[in-house]
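Hi P.,

Sorry for the delay on this. The queue was packed all week, but I finally got your sequence through. Input first:
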Amino acid sequence: MTLPPVLQNAMSEPSIETLLVLFMMATSLMLVAIAFERAFLLARVRLSVRGASKLVTLARQGTLAEVQEASTRLTGPVAAIFTAGLSRAMGQVRGDPTRAMMREQKRLSGVMKSRTWILATAGALMPFVGLFGTVLGVMASFQAIGETGQGGFAVVSVGISQALIATAVGIAVALEGVILFNVLQSISQKITRELSLLVDELLEIIIAGEGHAVHSRE
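Then the structure:
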């Protein structure tokens, strides 16, 4: 594949703005890699939430002992949340089921959000990095004109067109970062809502079961 003449000139004579463009292109590849890794994690969490949904369905119809036994077969990142609550509800571990499940839920939420800040940061900074490269390129063009004493649109346009590549690349990488960040955040929030509803329902069943046990002893 043949590069455009402007890109050929930029690559044949590397400058600071060229290095910035290469840096932004490498950043773009890094953002894609982060997005794929986060998407794979969210897919695992979503699959685990579906398994937890079946567990809550069982809790509506069966006993806590049956639910606790079924929770041992629950896999994925969500398993720790329900295991923590049920083990305390059954008296196997000392503690409050509500606090235990909320703590594990916060921990999972932190894992889901980790590294996404890089996408947002790139979306905010890359336009400025590109603009910085363009400013340096324009300054270099005018400096060359001053040293050679040759001017005119034909001379200036070549240097400025090369410098503007940095701004274009910076904007493209910024859009990429913002879009990936928003997509991942939307998916993460949806999963978090589904998980919160399941946790609330299971806690309601646990509390109702504890109340029923107290009345039975009386």
